[in-house]
Amino acid sequence: MPLTKLQFRPGFVKDTTAYANEGGWRDGDKVRFTLGFPEKIGGWQKLSNNSFLGTCRALLPWFDLAGSKRTGVGTNIKYYVEEGGSYFDLTPLRLTTAAGDVTFSASNGSATITVTETGHGAAQGDYVTFSGAASLGGVITAAVLNQEYRIDTVVSGNAFTITARAAGTSIASITVDGALSYTALPANASDTGNGGSSVVGAYQVNTVSDTTSVGTGWGAGGWSRQGWNDAALSGGISTSQIQTWSHDTFGEDILINRRGGPIFVWDTSAGTASRAVDISTLSGTDIPTKANQVMVSDRDRHVIAFGVNDVGSSDLDPMLIRFSDQEDYTDWQITATTTAGSLRLGNGSEIVLGVETRQQTLVFTDTSLYAMQYLGPPFTFGINMVSRNTSVVSPKAVTAVDDAVYWMGDRVFYVFNGAVQEIPCPVLNYVFDTMNQEGSHKVVCGSNVEFSEIWWFYPCSLSGECDRYVVYNYKQQIWYTGTLSRSAWVDRAAGAVPLAANENYLYYHETGLNDGSTDPFSPITSYVESSPLTVGEGDQFAFLSRLLPDVTFGQSTATSPQVTLTVSASDGPGDSYGQIDSDATTRTASTPIELFTEQVYLRLRGRQMKFRVDSADLNTTWRLGTPRADLRTDGRR
């Protein structure tokens, strides 16, 4: 009797019933499809064992003029530059006090230090570095005070508290939630001083909430589903924006913007001991003081600010675009001799983001899409509406691949390649029904062009951070899903591989075969599972007695790489798998498939059967081909 080829359509289909998806794949994790066949994804490894504070929201790899590679890392707490595997704190300062404005007080037996400064403007969770302090007289020495601290509580507008720690203890010893992972240093009875008259406090820019609060503004579900500052609706919309960063290179330097705040510049030549500075403090004209995004136009070298304060106003206009004079980020004055200017959009309530393609810059509002193109003097830029009634869930939910732009909207996926089109998605309901809608503003998108993939990471309904993914393969036009926690992603960050962030580390992806987040490395658990197959019209039982697997193990370095093949049978769509038939034939069979496995013998009987391949071994990769099965009809009962 001829063997039956087990051929399945590539990609996952989750939005129909399993029975309706006969001949296709229904579920899996950490697999992709190459030439139509499922295989395990590549592994990941830490960029270095050094860590940073906070949850990374943005990444920017670049090279300086000396050829040194750096990566900008914007977290919900700070902004760093990574160089050589180390992280250097560039977080800008908002205030540096005069000597003597800061004083300290301590209590015997307590590690809590009360800091007094009139009108400090700090909030809980902010960071401040003290210098010039003298010893309080006991264990709280000058070296203990003269370091960076995280503010524990704000007592009043003139006082706050910190927790003393031993001199030289890194601030990175404080976890994201503010818990102390070092030993606090209690004062003793001799600590009666106030730190002297030379204390200087250098306050970093205020931190902001990293969660959504209920109230007015853009919010729950799609980004700005309601209008800017609309009244609160049932279910609530957000009042605060998470601390996201935009950044771009200007020569070898970088321009940095925290959404809703000033534009900063970091001069690479000043070295990693320097911080980014507010460009409005530099010598210039009409420099913006607030913006939601900053970008450098590669073609014409203008700095563009989206959602920005107008000239002469301190209020942020969420629908205004301003751009600087060519090659000068300090000159924003609109005159006959400059190319600076502004554009105000009319459709929507807020500019969510701009994204640059090879030919133009696409500008997303909460309801529309515009195309912004360089025209040259005297108008510099022109802008046209491309589409109305579009949506975008977050300012990081968009990515461009050449001239095509892909993004996640409100229960829809889009592509722009000359026109806006909805992308048919057979896992659409699965993704949005399981998404934490209040956390949708954390959705992050990135490409993996080596495999023609667009990845979206999103938080599930039980998570506050992105812990699942959905992938669109734009060449094969298929979709697949899985679980993986990533909060930022950038493609080809180290030659040919993507760079991503999770927790307090950066990871190179498509590197090795294992999960490099642990020491030693852990295996990556991957699987793919089919929808059920039927014999004939489904009215006949089938008996499976033999299977010829078709699995390759590629670049596996394990001594004996293997996967587990599981076949399950049932009598119909409503019948559960894994039960015992009346003739005592087993309804589920699992067997290891190794490199040289030629065939396996099984005894399974049912009207339909589904197939699953699992792998959870170190140093193993696999690809499934087209197995053959010895299937024969076995009657109607």
Describe the structure.
The chain is mostly beta strands. Among the domains are: 4-8 and 525-633, Jelly Rolls, CATH 2.60.120; 93-204, Elongation Factor Tu (Ef-tu), domain 3, CATH 2.40.30.20. It contains two helices and 54 strands. The strands form 14 sheets. Strands 2, 3, 45, 46, 49, 50 and 52 form a seven-stranded mixed beta sheet that branches. A five-stranded mixed beta sheet has the order 41-42-43-6-44, with no helix packed on it. A hairpin with a 2-residue loop joins strand 21 (245-250) and strand 22. The longest helix is centred in the C-terminal third of the chain and has 6 residues, at 428-433. The protein is globular.
List keywords for this structure.
637 residues, mainly beta, Jelly Rolls, Elongation Factor Tu (Ef-tu), domain 3, seven-stranded mixed β-sheet, five-stranded mixed β-sheet, 54 strands, 42% strand, globular
Task: Kindly provide the radius of gyration, computed on alpha-carbon positions and rounded to a whole number of angstroms.
Answer: 29 Å
Specify the CATH class of the domain at 4-8 and 525-633.
Mainly Beta
CATH 2nd-level architecture of the domain at 4-8 and 525-633: Sandwich
> What would the average pLDDT be, to the nearest integer?
90
Instruction: Tell me which oligomeric state these chains represent.
Output: single chain
Shape: globular
Helix content: under 10%
Unreliably modeled segments: 213-239, 579-586
CATH fold description of the domain at 4-8 and 525-633:
Jelly Rolls
Largest sheet: 7 strands, mixed
- DSSP helical segment count: 2
